[in-house]
Amino acid sequence: MAESAVKFLLEKVAPLFDNDLQLMKGVREEIVYLRGELERMTAFLRIADAFEESDAEVKVWIKQVRDIAHDSEDVLDEFTLLQAHDHGEGLYGSIHRFSCCIKNTKARYRVASELQGINSRIRKISEVHKRLRHKFNMAEQGSGSSTAGHMWEDYRGDALLLEKTDIVGIDKPIKQLVGWLLSGGSSREVVSVAGMGGLGKTTLVKQVYDAAKVKKHFKVHAWITVTQSFKLGELLKDMLQQLHKAIRRPLPQGTNNMNNNQLKTLIKDFLQKRRYLIVLDDVWHLYGWDSVKYALPNNICGSRIMLTTRNADVASTTSVEPGGKVYNMEPLPQLESWELLCKKTFQGSPCPPYLEEISNCILRKCEGLPLAIVAVSGVLATKDKRRIDEWDMVGHSLGAEIEGNDKLKDLKKRASSKQKKKNTGRCCRGLPQ
Ligand SMILES: Nc1ncnc2c1ncn2[C@@H]1O[C@H](COP(=O)(O)OP(=O)(O)OP(=O)(O)O)[C@@H](O)[C@H]1O
Ligand SMILES: [Mg+2]
What we know:
GO terms for molecular function: ADP binding. This protein has about 425 residues and is of the alpha/beta class.
């Protein structure tokens, strides 16, 4: 199956991040991209595998993924062999080592260029993947299937649009973060909110950013969504625009034609004597932080930077800045998770007693991840409340999706020890545990 070939490959890719690949310029980024795309595809592959025989386009795509997985595996095997090559002892060993060193360097560049070739193939199949997912989702609805596969992808990005009434369970963290922003020293401080995707980092920070006290305290503010593939020039121009708009100043002439260094200088000069709050949402790599931090001066006006990240390295690096703090997002507690599920599934009405057991079981599978709760509730809300079998099916497909989603499995591990204690232990009709 293509899914197992890709999973096998992902296991091989993981250790490379600690090895020599990071010495080769650009290759690490290529591998990060490769891994990200493959991870994204695995969950879909499970479903696509089932469609292989009935859809010619899916069949071709699966074959391409399988071929890429096998080709990448060969290249990575070659690379691993190069690493493990033994040179022997003594004079012969030294001469052998020297000649191997030259051969190895050439071989590594060949491996690197083969990897880049594989990535350009990955880029093409990723495009098809996007199209197929869309097609697949439509086929799914058409067939009346209630699988929960990928439904949470549709809810990403809503965090900036949520109304206060949509939000549950974060009053305390809002208070804590507002406190961190308003108290503390007069030097610039960096507050990171860290945790896996879908835990509600952006939702939380947006509420803090919009809090009346915060807006009043930081007249100069900007919200920048960084993302994995940000373009620095556009990011800096956006920041400059928001900062000027916040204090109703016109944007200086000619910013459109400025290079990144000129833009950074302009931002730095603008902020130098002002108390500012900048949010950098969704910072994927250290590079994201490194490329803007010098534009944000360490003045003595009580300025603050908040960033959200899934990357623990980014959080720990920013925490060593003077006054740096990290807020680690936790899964929603049981009560709040239930509140969110009911809000989204029954639109304010209470859960009918005969659906409580199955709803609780489905909720337990979400392990307090707001994105999963909102997504599964979106599916449940469309189900006939009298058809418990349909609700069971949602539970089943959610189980499979969580098993196929490494990130959710990680969360499951972390959260299970906490939540097991709180769960009532009611059993779930035929759902995989
Ligand atoms: N406290 C909450 N109350 C209600 N819904 C929430 C809450 N937190 C998150 N959500 C829901 O989960 C979705 C995902 O949350 P959010 O985008 O904030 O996660 P994130 O941690 O920033 O994820 P990513 O790392 O992918 O950016 C939101 O769009 C929202 O629908
Ligand atoms: Mg986010």
